[in-house]
Design brief:
Distance between the termini: 27 Å
Number of helices: 7
Order of helices and strands: EEEHEEHEHHHEHEHEE
Helix content: 25-40%
Radius of gyration: 18 Å
Structural class: alpha/beta
Shape: globular
Strand content: 25-35%
CATH topology: Rossmann fold
Length: 239
């Protein structure tokens, strides 16, 4: 059974000041099995981020359905889920990574990653261990672990954001241009984590402008222009 089914999903935005309505996306349909990764490609403004935000329920779609096979709730249409259900899913099953960091300024770098692990029901000892492993993997200097992220550079904030989302090993992970401002070495670190998450069963939906980054990583590609799915042969599965 598919873990994620997006069926004929559409989203409009209304500008009440000017009395205008814009169709951001429409007729979006795809489905993913456990451990699969779909990459969404298209020009800027084509609605790629709108799809991810609709799955995460930051936006509420106007059309269609988005079924998620939740470990706790069973098969659930995210367009009809309650706020309480969405809060639970964001804490325990669905992760979201964007190129921007929006965190509480009174939490240190280390505390933010530890809190993500604690939300999964782990002990403080496990949270401390997993947080340190994640911070080291993304090469965040230990001298800044106990400082507030509002002092970080853009690249450091982005790497912290990825660490927070991936340390939970979510059932579904949404990636909104997470490598936008990273150097090649940091991109490879992100790729390593994505490959490990896939191998452990995490399902992923991602937006990447770097086509080379997506090579041999995605199982499917959704083209915003044609609204078509392209199956991708992975070299990792050959031979």
């Amino acid at each position: 059974m598919a873990i994620l089914e997006v069926n004929d999903m559409g989203k409009k935005f209304t500008n009440h000041h000017f009395g205008t309505t814009r169709q951001a996306v429409h007729h979006v349909t795809f489905q993913l099995e456990k451990g699969q990764f779909i990459g969404i490609v298209g020009k800027s403004g084509s609605g790629k981020s709108t799809i991810l935000k609709s799955i995460y329920r930051t936006y509420l779609p106007d059309e269609g359905s988005i079924y998620f096979d939740s470990e706790y709730f069973g098969k659930l249409d995210l367009t009809e889920a309650t706020e309480r259900q969405i809060i639970y899913l964001r804490k325990h099953e669905i992760g979201y990574v964007s190129q921007f960091l929006n965190v509480m300024p009174r939490r240190t770098c280390r505390e933010l990653v530890e809190q993500a692990v604690l939300e999964m029901g782990e002990t403080k000892a496990v949270a401390k261990r997993d947080a340190e492993i994640a911070l080291m993997h993304f090469e965040l200097d230990p001298t800044i672990w106990d400082t507030f992220p509002n002092t970080f550079s853009g690249g450091e904030k982005l790497r912290l954001n990825i660490a927070i989302a991936t340390v939970k090993k979510p059932r579904l992970l949404l990636l909104d241009e997470p490598t936008a401002s990273l150097d090649e070495k940091s991109k490879q670190r992100v790729r390593d984590v994505i490959e490990k998450l896939k191998a452990s069963g995490t399902t992923l939906v991602g937006i990447f402008h770097d086509i080379e980054f997506m090579e041999n990583l995605c199982d499917q590609i959704f083209d915003m222009n044609s609204k078509q799915i392209m199956e991708v042969a992975s070299d990792r599965n050959e031979g």
